[in-house]
């Protein structure tokens, strides 16, 4: 007599862990580890479990898992924007890190508006995220009240904060490093194109570092050469046009990111201003296209993937009961290319 036909997945819609374990030839504990994303499972057993799940039509009941573990297996990230590499690249590394531990990433952007950030954080908490990543150390105080009331780990990325968990670098120091580079080239007339610093402590710290270093050597940054704008290509073009249309021009322009610097280079070309012979332009972040600009851009390289990976690891360790005593530092490097050169000699 022939053996009975194996039930089809549609007849096994009520399959459970034991059914999956029996078909895969493993224990129910192994099935649980695979479904929770644990790394402590051999590849052959993991594949056997996945094949069994597919054959049985088994779908993990997330609600039941949440009740049993008191975790939603989700982690939230609230960032200013998804439109630039500044945040998209770290988020990709962050997601990869937490996904390996079985977590799903929920992302929201707030457009540099503190009230929108507060609302998005509240929404994340209402959805029951197990941990949260935010950007910078400047936030509405109510945000921390909500997070602390919920009792979940939260890490601040792209910054250093000795009061709360953070992953980033010293923006004051890197700004001074860039000014030193330009001073060594003989520049004395500086301008900046930056974002509004009120709710952007990263830009605010770089402005502080720039002013402090110039003051130490007896130089000033004139008010009319301090361009505050949105961090977009078009705004970089517009800000550089204003600088070039003035009665006098700076010889060095420090931009808050590479996108603004790219806009500055385009505006300089439009005005027939040579870079770096007439004016030097420098950026920040070392975006993928920075080396391909014309001329290639001098910038501060930030290991953006490091920010995301280390922020994710920090939260996973916190969820495991471990904590960090101080800021986690990521690497930065001054990358000198052709957009910065010796200050032009005075004419006349």
UniProtKB/TrEMBL annotation:
<dbReference type="InterPro" id="IPR046335">
    <property type="entry name" value="LacI/GalR-like_sensor"/>
</dbReference>
<dbReference type="InterPro" id="IPR010982">
    <property type="entry name" value="Lambda_DNA-bd_dom_sf"/>
</dbReference>
<dbReference type="InterPro" id="IPR028082">
    <property type="entry name" value="Peripla_BP_I"/>
</dbReference>
<dbReference type="Pfam" id="PF13377">
    <property type="entry name" value="Peripla_BP_3"/>
</dbReference>
<protein>
    <submittedName>
        <fullName>LacI family DNA-binding transcriptional regulator</fullName>
    </submittedName>
</protein>
<keyword id="KW-0238">DNA-binding</keyword>
<keyword id="KW-0804">Transcription</keyword>
<keyword id="KW-0805">Transcription regulation</keyword>
<dbReference type="GO" id="GO:0003677">
    <property type="term" value="F:DNA binding"/>
</dbReference>
<dbReference type="Pfam" id="PF00356">
    <property type="entry name" value="LacI"/>
</dbReference>
<dbReference type="InterPro" id="IPR000843">
    <property type="entry name" value="HTH_LacI"/>
</dbReference>
<feature type="domain" description="HTH lacI-type">
    <location>
        <begin position="15"/>
        <end position="69"/>
    </location>
</feature>
């Amino acid at each position: 007599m022939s053996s009975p036909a194996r039930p089809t997945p549609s007849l096994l819609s009520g399959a459970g862990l034991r059914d999956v374990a029996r078909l895969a030839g493993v224990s129910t504990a192994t099935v649980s580890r695979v479904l929770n994303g644990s790394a402590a499972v051999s590849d052959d057993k993991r594949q056997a479990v996945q094949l069994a799940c597919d054959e049985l039509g088994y779908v993990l009941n997330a609600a039941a898992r949440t009740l049993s573990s008191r975790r939603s297996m989700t982690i939230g990230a609230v960032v200013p924007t998804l439109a630039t590499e500044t945040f998209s690249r770290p988020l990709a590394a962050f997601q990869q890190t937490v996904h390996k531990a079985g977590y799903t990433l929920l992302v929201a952007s707030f457009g540099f508006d503190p009230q929108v950030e507060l609302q998005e954080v509240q929404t994340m908490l209402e959805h029951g995220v197990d941990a949260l990543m935010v950007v910078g150390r400047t936030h509405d105080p109510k945000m921390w009240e909500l997070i602390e009331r919920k009792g979940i780990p939260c890490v601040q990325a792209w910054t250093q904060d000795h009061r709360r968990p953070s992953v980033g670098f010293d923006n004051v120091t890197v700004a001074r490093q860039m000014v030193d580079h330009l001073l060594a080239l003989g520049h004395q007339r500086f301008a900046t194109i930056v974002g509004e610093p009120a709710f952007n402590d990263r830009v605010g710290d770089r402005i502080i570092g720039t002013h402090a270093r110039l003051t130490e050597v007896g130089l000033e940054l004139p008010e009319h050469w301090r361009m505050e704008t949105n961090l977009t290509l078009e705004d970089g073009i517009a800000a550089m046009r204003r600088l070039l249309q003035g009665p006098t021009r700076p010889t060095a322009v420090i931009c808050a990111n590479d996108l603004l610097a790219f806009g500055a280079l385009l505006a300089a070309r439009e005005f027939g201003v040579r870079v770096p012979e007439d004016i030097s332009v420098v950026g920040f972040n070392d975006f993928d296209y920075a080396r391909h600009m014309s001329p290639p851009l001098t910038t501060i390289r930030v290991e953006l993937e490091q920010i995301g990976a280390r922020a994710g690891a920090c939260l996973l360790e916190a969820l495991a009961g471990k904590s960090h005593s101080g800021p986690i530092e990521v690497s930065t490097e001054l990358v000198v290319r052709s957009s910065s050169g010796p200050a032009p000699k005075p004419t006349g």
